[in-house]
Write a structure and sequence with these properties.
- The complex is a heterodimer of chains A (456) and B (505).
- Chain A is an alpha/beta fold.
- In chain A, 30% of the residues lie in helices and 20% in strands.
- In chain A, strand 2 and strand 3 form a beta hairpin.
- The longest helix of chain B has 18 residues.
- The chains are: A alpha/beta (456), B alpha/beta (505).
- The interface between A and B is large, with 40 and 38 residues.
Chain lengths: 456, 505
């Protein structure tokens, strides 16, 4: 053993020398590389300059930070780069869009729609079936809607992940898909099962979902423990993943929202019990009777998707209040519940009289104000809250630096029924301009009709 | 009076709004207007009359020609063609629309054994030739995509999906794609279909027949429209592989796995994947592990988004066909020795299909499109110099009353355009020349338009050296007209198929 020490020292020194040599070589490498191919950079095509657009002079309704009078929004590429007051000057070379006397707002988001864009079939992905030239896209852009949720018809009673959020990126298939899937849906009204005719998902379907969530939660707890052990150096067997865990694990991890279709109090309460038991994020639609248990919903921070003008008669057989309430938005807001709104017929069309409510989407939010909600939550109900329902609030729903540049320029206040969408930007690109539109260019808004109040 | 005038104004405005966006091309020269078209040539000999056959002569050049021929007579000692010898036909015309080499005025076309052996003003009339006269000669029309006279095999219709899953319309919407690359149209040809005689009368001499269906429908056939037997109908043994594309995951997976599976296995590269077109036809989901892994993962980095209903059932394939028989046409298509026809229901399909086909560099795709909104992807198609087959008709810009000339826009963008009639019927082909003429009127280049019904489809389908142009070595498929082909007063006087007169007015 003793004889090894000097030996080691010699070798150790050698290693150090080799290391130093290697470092030297590594340091010299870039120099050689530069000498070798000076022409290569010239051959490479120059990266196209990022397009910069500045919307100046308009009242910027940020949704999250109030209204900036005569503000400036600078778009760089597909994102919002800067937002400021009149003092913020656009950089040289920027394309200037004058919005003087107009309103700049985030594009509206629709949480449920029957837009005919995709062929959703089992094993079919939304991203493989988009139609960037569909008529609905033109109409959506003209209505100020920049993103929408699309879902396949429910195939069964269980939870479903067949859905996506698409943008109205006209002509750009790749720019259309925001995320797929975005939420997990579960319907308690129908769903095609044996109990569909009673307007309820079967008790079996409910039990199955609860059990599936329970197994996934147990697995997640075991997995967390296993990973903690691994870090600590303990050796424990890896937990076995249940076969159906993948479907609901994102719910347990709070990465995805469970969207429950429920309208009656009993169904809503059952949906709330899932939040209590599994700590998941949840959104409930159409939640017609939610106004009766507003405080319970608020306590669990569950989001709602309501139709502010729905008319459901009370159920005569029930011993107590039931059905819809025109004051529901006000009751919900006072309790602290956040809600998104949806029209009765959530689709775009130019044929026939029905099925075209989304052409006047902001009016649905104005109905929420009629029911007692304030202007701020009404505005949020078609922008930020839908984004939260879809779990995309980091990208969509308000005008903030770093968010997607899905912006609309309106002739007046967003919730005013007389306001026209003048320009629509999706992914930073101007895709709709009313002065060039086929449908709306010849229509002039009427003056002198009272407007709805602005948010504080 | 004033009120009447006021009433007419908005009408005119509407009219100008409809036509304002169209560029009106200069009118093509009509018979008698061109300075090169001198008065009395050619002499009006008896129809189909041989020189010296006693036709009436009205003009000086005609007399001269007759005299020249008369001088030769004693030397040759024979005035009529030998019925048992080599048949020689000469077409003389005031205008020869060669398509490949522009217009030849006052020229001759010499035909021996069904092939063109000489074209030009200085070509010699061989002794004993049968001489045909025409004002204008153009190549026989090449039908770029047709189903006339053929029927889809029963198994071509894929199993229907449940109604609630039916996607949007168009080719393949709501039904699963099939995979029958070994199905051949040439196995079910019938040369005596009366529609083929009607097509010949309309000047169509070559027709590209393609099977209908969903997904990979099979091989088409490039046929001559008159033959004694079905075996003699195809011009070349193999027709284009025909794929009906629809934008959905199943169809895209099917194309990807079939193309990759057909590549030779040597080398073991990415092409040597699982046998896509093996003896037992594979359902599209079969090769999912190597092919689909990354695809599946790219959304939020998670797996397992496949619905619990499991993998789709296999397509309803024809039960015949060994592995090699199924693989061979796909392999040839991928290697580019066989052109591939893709039909697309809408423009969105093209935006999916073109990136998908980018991996197959040697593939020779022909896109059969019909949607008016195709003009919105004209730049994309032009950049790739894509081969496009489009209906010959003006369209309305969607949601407006503005007329648009999609073939003209595509041609201008750099794409190669072939035109087919809106109706795939003999009547449709009878009107094709006038429909194309209307496109010329509204801004399409006349040369490109004439090419679009002759040489362009021939070249797309690999027949550019056989048909579609009047040039030495080409098949003598000719239309003899008494005027400009696009002028509606022009009549077809006769049609030649490989030198034989198959129609005569």
């Amino acid at each position: 053993m003793k004889s090894e020490f000097p030996f080691r020292r010699v070798w150790g020194g050698l290693w150090v020398a080799v290391l130093v040599l290697l470092l030297l070589i590594a340091g010299l490498m870039p120099v050689w590389a530069q000498d070798d191919d000076p022409g290569d950079d010239e051959d490479l095509p120059a990266a196209p300059p990022v397009a910069i657009t500045a919307i100046v002079g308009g009242d910027v309704w940020t949704v999250t930070k109030g209204v900036i009078k005569g503000g400036t929004v600078i778009i760089k590429g597909s994102k919002i780069d800067q937002i400021g007051g009149p003092e913020l000057k656009p950089p040289p070379g920027a394309k200037i869009v004058d919005a003087k006397g107009q309103v700049v707002a985030p594009g509206f988001i629709v949480t449920s729609s029957q837009i005919q864009l995709t062929g959703l079939t089992p094993g079919n992905k939304v991203k493989d079936s988009l139609d960037p030239f569909a008529l609905a896209i033109d109409l959506a852009l003209a209505s100020g809607v920049t993103s929408a949720f699309v879902t396949g018809a429910d195939g069964g009673e269980g939870p479903s992940n067949t859905n996506a959020v698409i943008k109205m990126a006209e002509g750009d298939t790749a720019g259309m898909l925001v995320a797929e899937p975005v939420v997990t849906t579960f319907s308690m009204t129908g769903g095609g099962g044996r109990f569909a005719r009673f307007g309820r998902a079967s008790a079996t379907a409910r039990w199955n979902l609860r059990d599936q969530l329970r197994r996934a939660k147990e697995y997640q707890q075991k997995l967390d423990a296993y990973e903690a052990d691994k870090k600590a150096g303990k050796k424990t067997p890896e937990p076995k993943k249940p076969a159906d865990a993948d479907e609901v694990l994102p719910l347990i991890r709070k990465e995805r929202v469970l969207r429950v279709n429920a309208s009656e109090v009993a169904d809503i309460l059952w949906a709330l019990s899932l939040v209590d038991d599994f700590g998941i994020k949840e959104a409930i639609s159409p939640a017609t009777e939610a106004w009766m248990i507003a405080d319970q919903i608020a306590k669990r921070d569950v989001l709602l998707i309501i139709t502010a003008r729905s008319r459901n008669a009370p159920d005569e057989r029930k011993n107590g209040p039931s059905g819809s309430n025109p004051d529901a938005p006000g009751i919900l807001q006072k309790a602290g519940v956040r809600f998104a709104v949806l029209p009765v017929d959530a689709s775009f069309s130019v044929g026939g009289e029905s099925g075209r409510d989304l052409l006047s989407y902001p009016v649905e939010a104005a109905f929420a104000m009629r029911g007692g909600a304030d202007a701020q939550s009404a505005l949020e109900s078609i922008t930020l809250t839908p984004a939260k329902v879809l779990g995309l609030e980091k990208r969509l729903g308000s005008l903030e630096v770093g968010k997607d540049a899905d912006i609309i320029v309106l002739s007046g206040e967003p919730l005013d029924y007389r306001s026209f969408v003048e320009k629509t930007f999706v992914n930073g690109k101007l895709l709709y301009d009313r002065t060039r539109s086929t449908f709306f260019n010849q229509i002039q808004p009427q003056k002198g009709v009272p407007t709805v109040p602005s948010p504080p | 009076m004033t009120t009447a005038a006021a009433k007419t104004t908005p009408r005119r405005k509407v009219f100008s709004a409809v036509y304002a966006n169209l560029k009106i091309a200069p009118r093509p020269p009509i018979l008698g207007e061109s300075p090169v078209r001198t008065g009395g040539f050619p002499p009006k000999l008896g129809r189909d009359g041989a020189v010296g056959g006693g036709g009436k002569v009205f003009s000086t050049p005609g007399i001269l020609a007759l005299l020249t021929a008369a001088c030769l007579l004693p030397v040759q000692g024979q005035t009529r063609p030998d019925p048992f010898g080599e048949e020689v036909v000469v077409v003389r015309a005031r205008h020869i629309e060669t398509v490949s080499r522009g217009v030849i005025n006052d020229g001759l076309i010499v035909i021996r054994n069904g092939k063109i052996t000489a074209v030009g003003t200085d070509a010699k009339i061989p002794p004993g030739a049968r001489i045909l006269q025409a004002d204008t000669v153009m190549p026989g029309i090449v039908g770029a995509y047709s189903q006339i006279g053929i029927s889809a095999p029963a198994a071509q219709a894929g199993p229907a999906l449940p109604q609630r899953f039916a996607g949007r319309g168009g080719a393949g919407g709501g039904q699963r794609p099939v995979s029958n690359p070994h199905y051949r149209v040439k196995d079910e040809l019938y040369p005596f279909d009366e529609n083929y005689a009607r097509l010949l009368r309309a000047g169509v001499t070559t027709l590209a027949l393609a099977p209908e269906g969903r997904g990979i429908a099979g091989q088409g056939a490039l046929v001559r429209l008159q033959a004694e037997t079905a075996e003699k109908m195809p011009l070349i043994p193999d027709g284009p592989l025909t794929i009906h594309f629809a934008p959905n995951t199943q169809t895209m997976d099917l194309i990807r796995t079939t193309f990759d599976g057909a590549r030779p296995r040597t080398g073991g590269g990415p092409g040597g994947g699982p046998g896509g077109v093996g003896g037992r036809p594979m359902p599209p989901a079969e090769a999912e592990d190597p092919e689909e892994g990354p695809e599946e993962d790219d959304m939020q980095g998670r797996r397992g988004q496949r619905p619990p209903t499991g993998r789709p059932q296999g397509p309803a394939n024809l039960i015949t066909g060994s592995a090699d028989v199924r693989r061979e046409p796909v392999l040839r298509a991928v290697q580019g020795t066989l052109p591939t026809i893709f039909t697309c229901g809408d423009s969105a399909s093209v935006t999916y299909l073109m990136p998908l086909l980018q991996a197959y560099t040697t593939l020779k795709p022909v896109y059969v499109l019909s949607s008016p909104e195709t003009y919105r992807i004209a730049d994309l198609l032009g950049q790739k110099k894509a081969n496009i087959v489009f209906p010959a008709a003006l369209n309305l810009e969607p949601l407006t009353v503005n007329r648009i000339n999609v073939p003209a826009i595509l041609t201008k963008a750099g794409a190669k355009v072939a035109l087919r009639p809106q109706a795939d019927t003999p009547e449709g082909y009878q009107n094709l020349r006038y429909q194309v003429g209307e496109l010329v009127k509204y801004g399409m280049d006349r040369t490109a338009a004439l090419r679009a019904i002759t040489l362009a489809p021939a070249e797309m389908l690999g027949l550019g050296d056989r048909v579609g142009s009047i040039d030495t070595g080409r098949d003598a498929n000719l239309i003899l007209l008494d005027g400009d082909p696009f002028v509606s007063t022009t009549r077809i006087r006769s049609v030649l198929l490989e030198g034989k007169t198959v129609y005569e007015e």
